[in-house]
Specification:
Blueprint: E1 2-9, E2 12-17, E3 21-26, E4 40-46, E5 49-55, H1 56-59, E6 73-77, E7 84-88, E8 90-97, E9 117-123, E10 126-131, H2 133-138
Parallel strand pairs: 2-10, 5-7
Antiparallel strand pairs: 1-2, 1-8, 3-6, 4-5, 6-7, 9-10
Length: about 140
């Protein structure tokens, strides 16, 4: 059994393994850092730790279809060399799934490189695209 956390990015619902998540923050002040990649929102100070924040909508070149960002959340990812915050439009819920519920991502999904996808899950008529967040955050810019 797996636990995934589902979240909204643009018009899609995505999910990542809960084991990779340290915590979820309501959007807090993000300090801009000059001369960084456009998808780096900046850094946050989390209990004395400086954590970079990646905007997945920008990183994936998705169309943002709203102006109001009051729902934005930062998911802090722990299972990499350093903590990284991931800015998402909204966090939905934690869902328990069985391994046999995970299907291959249809070939029609070409928004992201194939290795970013961990699969797709259909739960009660809702499709959740599973992402391999550790691969996404560990790739260098030239590999994206």
């Amino acid at each position: 059994m797996y636990k995934i956390i589902s979240f909204q990015l643009a018009n899609e619902v995505y999910g990542i393994n809960v084991e990779n998540v340290g915590e979820i923050l309501k959007k807090i002040e993000i300090a801009e850092v000059p001369n960084t990649n456009p998808y780096i929102e900046g850094v946050i100070n989390l209990r004395g730790n400086v954590i970079p924040v990646v905007n997945l909508v920008k990183k994936f070149n998705l169309k943002q279809n709203r102006d109001n960002n009051l729902e934005d959340k930062i998911i802090v990812i722990d299972d990499i060399e350093e903590q990284v915050g991931v800015l998402v439009d909204d966090v939905r819920e934690v869902i328990k799934i069985e391994a046999d519920m995970i299907e291959e991502v249809p070939k029609i999904y070409t928004e992201l490189p194939k290795e970013f996808y961990a699969g797709v899950v259909n739960i009660e008529g809702r499709m959740i695209i599973l992402l391999d967040i550790l691969k996404i955050l560990s790739l260098k810019e030239e590999e994206v």
